[in-house]
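Lab notebook, bench 4. Still working through the backlog of constructs that have no structural model yet. Next entry is a single chain of 494 residues. Request: give me the structure tokens for it.
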Amino acid sequence: MNEQQNSSGQRIRRINKKKMLQRTLALIGVAVFLAAVFLISAAMLILKRPDVSEQEKRRLAEFPTFSFSSLWDGSYTQGIIRYFTDTAPYRDEIHDVGRDISERAGFRLDDVKMHGVVEPPVPRPPETEPPVTEPPVTEPPVTEPPVTGPVESGPAGPVETDPPVTEPPVTEPPVTEPPVTEPPVTEPSLSEDPVDPEEELRKNGIIVLGSGKNTRAIMMYYGSNAATAEYVASLNRYKEALGSGVNVWSMIIPTAVSYYLPEKYQKYTFSQKENIDYSIPLLKNVKNVDAYGALLAHVNEPIITRTDHHWAPLGAYYAAERFAQDAGVPFAPLSSYQKVDRDGYVGTMYAYTGDVKLKNNPEVFTYYKPANSYSTTYYSTSFRNPQASSLFFEWVDISYAYGVFLGSDQQIAVIDTDCKNGRTLLVVKDSYGNALIPFFTGSFEKIIVTDYRYFDLNLVSFCREQGVTDLLFAACAYSSCGVEAGYLEEMRTR
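Model written out:
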């Protein structure tokens, strides 16, 4: 009996010890968790919060300014949440760790990885429309029936004077409509705010392919003939307004997808060359600059960055050379420039995709400084508050290496050079155009640079006031064949 009692007591004591150990471990676990939460919370409050994300190439959220109206509508508290979420200490480093883990857990098929790439949701534009020999949009298609009499329109509809009502002949397209086989060439709608191309870029799919120093990110392209036609129509209006005294030029800049995308992935993109070719016969006294052909001759050279969505300065040099030839101005050979190399560059494609292969295979960013004399002055977007500065912002961090030109898009730059030929060039551009500017310092007496997204004056009046002899629209195909026309029309009609 005593033995049974002793055995039962020992069993109870063991159970009690086990429960006590479990409670102790649970308390220790809770204490560790609370301590970790406290330490992390303290660190989030004490540690310095970043202002800029080098990976994402953007400024981070700022702490909101208090007002009773923002407190009432909830935007103030939302701003605080956004600030603390967006500016977490060591955010880029934490993202790096997560991306490294994700990369190790995944795989690449044929050394290729797709980021948000899908087949275009609309049919590919017809490759045969229009042929190079197609007449301008204001002329009827060659398949129109023979003209036997005019057509007049009124409230009661068409009044035919010769052919049957069911087949009215057309002497020329109505003023408000282009031929039915062409995309509409109408005034872009300005009722809505224009789309920011830089934001739109983030929505395009990206393919990362290759390995080592051949690793390259390629962004898909979804421009259209209709948007291209609107862009051309706007340039034609500029030429009509400025007259014969000003040369108007169109440079649509192709991107990596035009040269480096393997054939097996072509179904995921539209053709930049097709849109560029489509634009040429629509130009009326506006001169085309064949940037596509200029770059095509040098595809085996580093003309387009591997880790960024921009072209490389070398590509800009070849396009600038083509423009100078067409414009009949002098052009300095590349050997006359000071070559500057910056190693370790990882551009926006890593920010867009988080693809570790891009981070692990940085590239050399090379730019060129002209040897001739020039001075640079910057103005506000309304051409006020002049400040002398440099054409090159060489102190920018390597993660922003493409920003070495002009420093910012949100200003107007004026470069006065020692090239005394009486020619004044105004460049209306997106960020691609920045890399062109140094190569024009030996070709024009004055160069004026503005970004079409940040210009607060009437561009036609501005050209006249500044004595512009050459007006160059230079932007990548994403802009020219996509969203640019609305901005250009605002600049023309403001």
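Notes after review: Confidence is low (pLDDT under 50) at residues 103-108, 126-193. The radius of gyration is 30 Å. Flag for follow-up if needed.
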